[in-house]
Amino acid sequence: MFLLIAGALTVLTVRNLFVATMLLGIVSFIMALVFVSLDAVDVAFTEAAVGAGISTVLYIGTLALVGAQEKPGIKIAAGPLAICLAVGAVLFYATYQMPPYGKADNPVHTHVAPRYIDVSPTEIGVPNMVTSVLSSYRGYDTFGETTVVFTAAIGVLLILSQLRRRKEDEDEENPVRKGLRVSLTGLGSQHDLVPHVVSKLLIPFIFVFALYVQFHGDYGPGGGFQAGVIFAAGFILYALIFGLQYTQKVLSSVAVLYLLAAGVLLYGGVGIVGIIVGGNFLDYNVLSENPVSGQHLGILLIELGVGITVAAAMLAIFYAFAGRAEPVTQMPDQE
Amino acid sequence: MIDLILDIATWALLIAGSLLLLITGLGLLRLPDLYTRIHAGGMADTLATFLIFIGLALQSDDIFVTVKLLMVIVFVFFTSPTASYALAHGSFVAGLKPRLDGITPPETDDIEKDAL
């Protein structure tokens, strides 16, 4: 816990943004460890994959565009600082009113959770109860989460395409800074033998592992979110080592946009099919003759939708960042 | 009897791995140059992970857990040195030359000043 607080405070005070990015990765990793020690392995998996993995890559992509030093001059805004401290103090005081952690008759343990724990094996039949709660009992909330990921990716793409229009106007005047020449696409050189070989060995296994996590979410930690992130990580690794143009030949930017929408549509489509066949929205019992197999089919399809959307969202953001760094055709001091 | 041997082996491997990680951390802090630090971090880190995971694999009863741990070892064995190589290659290409025999090349100071 102290490492977490110390790391978070250091992120605020350090000046070099590269160091801050690495510290954010470390803080995310410690958060994942805290989750594991609290027995929430699914959440820890997602936190480690997203926070310590993909976020760090996307931050470094941003730093390649904007440069690694924070602008000088710390402005202390008194008003917002006072409001933050006041709200924080109120929240801290409110935690004294919460029931003791882990007591058996806390409201969170007696309200809905016993019903899920008792009935889930017979009603839904998947061994991993987190998946059954996430995808079936709370499927509507997960639909909201998927839509949020979709909206976030759309927002990033909208902002970045706006910046591109303005940047193309002022590129004629400003000379390119030398630091920007070492761009993400400049690493696709012919001289990086070791990363080429090792990544060619590993990328198929990364994709197999992503598929494993996707479809194994019923039995162990896993599910759509983690699998989508790992899938995108495989593509990003390929793009970092072999160059962005080859990656876009495999999965172009337009295809990624279609996939982004396709995942959300798949999820919503499962819900609509539920209505057409005769049940409620996102009711999986009516998808098949047997309610339990209907639940299995429904969970499979919506986890697939979640995985597709998350992978496409991460890839779309990466393409948007990486495509903006100037491509380097030749680096004379490489050997 | 076999349990005792396994326990002793696990203890020994875990302690050895942790000591190696401690030495790695010490090296990362005290060594003078980026390249020597990459050397410390990349090599000893991989071996320490190897030892700790083999120690853990000895303790499990389920064959699936052992196989999964061994696969993680193989994965780390491939990726951790490659990451060190990529880091060293990237910094060399970016212009950071290694500090050799007390001769500090001029570009080193600019880049290391930026790093803080």
Secondary structure: elements and pairs:
The complex is a heterodimer of chains A (335) and B (116).
Chain A: H1 2-13, H2 17-37, H3 41-66, H4 78-95, H5 107-110, H6 113-123, H7 129-137, H8 139-170, H9 193-215, H10 224-242, H11 244-250, H12 253-277, H13 291-322
Helix pairs in contact in A: 1-2, 2-3, 3-10, 3-13, 6-7, 7-8, 7-13, 8-12, 8-13, 9-10, 10-11, 10-13, 12-13
Chain B: H1 2-30, H2 34-59, H3 63-94, H4 106-114
Would you give an account of this structure?
The complex is a heterodimer of chains A (335) and B (116). In chain A, 71% of the residues lie in helices and 0% in strands. Chain A is mostly helical. Chain A has 2 domains: 1-69, NADH-ubiquinone/plastoquinone oxidoreductase chain 6, subunit NuoJ (Four Helix Bundle (Hemerythrin (Met), subunit A)), CATH 1.20.120; 128-172 and 182-329, no CATH class. The longest helix of chain A has 32 residues, at 139-170. The two termini of chain A are 46 Å apart. Mean pLDDT of chain A is 79; it is low at 169-186 and 326-335. Chain B is elongated and about 60 Å long. Helix content of chain B is 83%, strand content 0%. Chain B is built from 4 helices and no strands. Residues 108-116 of chain B have low confidence and may be disordered. With 116 residues, chain B is mostly helical. At the A-B interface, helix 9 of A face helix 3 of B.
Keywords:
A: mainly alpha; Four Helix Bundle (Hemerythrin (Met), subunit A); B: mainly alpha; 83% helix
Q: Please provide the count of β strands of chain A.
A: 0
The first-to-last residue Cα distance of chain A is: 46 Å
How many helices of chain A? The count is: 13
Q: What is the helix content of chain A?
A: over 70%
The largest pleated sheet of chain B is described as: none
Question: What gyration radius of chain B follows from the Cα positions, in whole Å?
Answer: 19 Å
Subunit organisation of the chains: heterodimer
**Computed structural class of chain B:** mainly alpha
Approximately how much beta-strand content do the residues of chain A carry? under 5%
The count of DSSP E runs of length 2 or more, i.e. the number of strands of chain B, is: 0
The ordered string of helix (H) and strand (E) elements of chain A is HHHHHHHHHHHHH
Task: Give the averaged pLDDT of chain A, no decimals.
Answer: 79
Per the principal axes of the C-alpha atoms, what is the gross shape of chain A?
globular
Q: Low-confidence runs of chain B (pLDDT<50, min 5 residues)?
A: 108-116
Biggest β-sheet strands, sense, barrel of chain A: none
SS content category of chain A: mainly alpha
The ordered H/E elements of chain B are: HHHH
Give the DSSP E fraction of chain B (strand runs of 2 or more residues).
Answer: under 5%
